[in-house]
Amino acid sequence: MRKFDTKVQHLKYKVLREVAREAWDDTLLDNLLEIPKKIIPGNTPTMRCCVYKERAILSDRVKIAMGGNKDNPNIIEVIETACDECPMGGYEVTNSCRGCLAHRCEDVCKKGAISFDHHHVAHIDKSKCVDCGACAKVCPFTAIINRKRPCQNACKIKAITMNENKAAAINNDKCIACGACVYQCPFGAIMDKSYILDCIDIIKKSENNTKYKVYALVAPSISSQFTYAKLGQVISGMKELGFFTVVEAALGADMVAYAESKELAEKGFLTSSCCPAFVDYVHKAFPDLVPFISHNLSPMATIAKYIKEHEENVKIVFIGPCTAKKMEVQKEEVKPYVDSCITFEELQALFDSKDLDITALDEDILDNASYFGRIFARSGGVSDAVRQGLKEHGIEDFEFKALPCDGIEACKMALLKKSKNVLDANFIEGMACVGGCIGGAGCLTHGEKNKAEVDKYGHEAFEKTISDAISVLK
Amino acid sequence: MKITVCIGSSCHIKGSRQVVEELQYLISENNLGDKVELAGTFCMGKCQQGVCVTVDDTFYSVSPDTVKEFFSKNVMAGIK
């Protein structure tokens, strides 16, 4: 079995794999309706009330695997049939309340929201409660719990509410497509739209890279993924799938670090622009700060632009850990350079749709970028690279004060401070996912060791400085 | 004349940067800047034979050690 963090990911993967399998064979339209039954054969339900509901949900998953609802511009979509309508009442007293004498909950509640019935059991008056959680903290029986939906808990920018059917609903005006809810929903009721069909179509129509060449642009966080195989085997696998060559997006990161450090010294204050969810967040929540976003395209778009400008007849597919990248590639300024975008989860599905055992392949090579380009994949990496960029430009009279923001909550704090002019930093490194890209929703696994894996991969780079890595790009 | 050097992964670790740098040096040394265009590409599909270089449409396998020889034989000779 492949290594995924959760069974939800595994289920999503199975759908993607089967959709891809039919697409390679040009049989998708004929067999579309059979896919749910293929994944859930027999009559014994394993996940829901009955196999019919399971299959109904699966057919919705198939739709999203095929690109989802075209009328919804958001690449993150709720599968209403799959939403379990989790309770979301906030703080509640459970039957663990023993009706004690101490009443610490009552004492700590500043709003006077706690009362007791004739069995001395606590009750919370919802009209007074402000969900501060103080009562839950002091209860010696942990009898008070916070009923919050995992999706809402995951969404730190509060873009998720409930619709009239009590199912989760995403506010597209707020959503930054980071995918936190996709990864956190225990029922798999929120999914990122998949563009594997576009990717397969691009590969097939290239007719073995004769009509045009298909480049895979791969994010550096790949170093922490596919842990069951060697990175070189993953690269071989991509070429087996039909990619002409594989290029590190980290080379684009080197280009960005070099340009961004100069831009920073000129302007005096900047935020990074590599994380599309962060950039989207600034646009949506702090529009006044938009001018401070680095004018560089993201590393992905930067290297894709370079390739498209220097090679004829190329199509580029970005492969990364990120759901928001799928939104980024649809932007007018990026669209001409990147033709499609898939995640590591989807790459795994593509491998298996062709029954490719990558562990049996020879190791190919992936080496374009420097250490600094590669560490963009983890929190703090962009700041380190910009510091190095300043050094390599010979800019010494600029005092660099970086603030690496690990996750969207930290970004929010930094942006809030900046908007009030009380931020003690001149560079905000904004990463929407905790840990940086290695925490992305499109990763197969999210582990403690991932940061170390990225650093190790960084140190293995043939080129040690940014200037050396980008010197060949003339 | 157009010289294209592969800067893809496989050629990169075989020294394509040194080949590019040496070619840049040789081109300016011989004042060929207006006659020779130096370009990069990410793959020529012949990774085993890297560093892959083409002069117009002719393929050559070059290494940092042979780049000088390659230049005089296939570039200088071609210009004259």
The chain-level mean pLDDT of chain B equals 92
Provide the succession of SSEs of chain B. EHHEEEH
User: What oligomeric assembly is this protein in?
Assistant: heterodimer
Strand order of the largest sheet of chain A: 10-9-12-13
- Choose one word for the global shape of chain A: globular
Number of strands of chain B: 4
Q: What is the overall number of helices of chain B?
A: 3
List the helices and strands and how they pair.
The complex is a heterodimer of chains A (474) and B (80).
Chain A: H1 7-24, H2 28-31, H3 35-39, H4 51-65, E1 76-78, E2 90-93, H5 104-108, E3 114-116, E4 122-124, H6 134-138, E5 144-147, H7 150-154, E6 160-162, E7 168-170, H8 180-184, E8 190-192, H9 196-205, E9 213-218, H10 231-241, E10 245-248, H11 249-267, E11 270-271, H12 276-285, H13 299-310, E12 314-320, H14 324-328, E13 340-343, H15 344-353, H16 371-374, H17 381-393, E14 402-406, H18 408-419, E15 427-431, H19 450-459, H20 466-470
Parallel strand pairs in A: 9-10, 9-12, 11-15, 12-13, 14-15
Antiparallel strand pairs in A: 1-8, 2-5, 3-4, 6-7
Chain B: E1 2-6, H1 9-13, H2 16-29, E2 37-41, E3 52-55, E4 58-61, H3 67-79
Parallel strand pairs in B: 1-2
Antiparallel strand pairs in B: 1-3, 3-4
Keywords:
heterodimer; A: 474 residues; alpha/beta; Alpha-Beta Plaits; 3 domains; four-stranded parallel β-sheet; three-stranded parallel β-sheet; 20 helices; 15 strands; 39% helix; B: 80 residues; alpha+beta; Glutaredoxin; globular
Characterise this structure.
The complex is a heterodimer of chains A (474) and B (80). In chain A, strand 14 (402-406), helix 18 (408-419) and strand 15 form a beta-alpha-beta unit. Chain A contains 20 helices and 15 strands. Chain A has 474 residues and is an alpha/beta fold. Chain A has 3 domains: 1-66, no CATH class; 90-147, 2-Layer Sandwich (Alpha-Beta Plaits), CATH 3.30.70; 197-470, no CATH class. The mean pLDDT of chain A is 95. Chain A has helices at residues 7-24, 28-31, 35-39, 51-65, 104-108, 134-138, 150-154, 180-184, 196-205, 231-241, 249-267, 276-285, 299-310, 324-328, 344-353, 371-374, 381-393, 408-419, 450-459, 466-470; strands spanning 76-78, 90-93, 114-116, 122-124, 144-147, 160-162, 168-170, 190-192, 213-218, 245-248, 270-271, 314-320, 340-343, 402-406, 427-431. Helix content of chain A is 39%, strand content 12%. Chain A has a 4-stranded parallel beta sheet with strand order 10-9-12-13, sandwiched between helices. In chain A, strands 11-15-14 form a 3-stranded parallel beta sheet, sandwiched between helices. With 80 residues, chain B is of the alpha+beta class. Chain B has a single domain (2-79), classed as Glutaredoxin (3-Layer(aba) Sandwich). Chain B has helices at 9-13, 16-29, 67-79; strands at 2-6, 37-41, 52-55, 58-61. Chain B has a 4-stranded mixed beta sheet with strand order 2-1-3-4, covered by helices on one side. In chain B, strand 3 and strand 4 form a beta hairpin. Chain B is globular and about 30 Å long. The termini of chain B are close together. Chains A and B meet through strand 10 of A and helix 1, helix 2 and strand 2 of B.
